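Posting for a labmate who doesn't have an account.
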Amino acid sequence: MLESIIHEYPLKYDLIFKTAGIYLAVENFEKALELFLGLERALPGRMDVKLEIAKIYYHFDKIYQVDAYLNRILQKAPDNKEALALRKAI
């Protein structure tokens, strides 16, 4: 459903991204992850979404998933400073 909303109303992307950020701020990581994964399915090329997903997986200590997302990010943007810093942390 989230994917169809984003495709029908592309400006909703910002609203959903910010909402996911609010969930992160109040430490509701599961809900934030759910929203970010929905955004990723709708817009698979967004590296900012992939980075947020990697950060959440890092919080949950799911290193395999963190590494997979960082690989995707760094493949497209090898100089991404946040992704490189997170790579060092794992």
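Reply:
Got it, the structure tokens are right above this. The chain has a mean pLDDT of 90.
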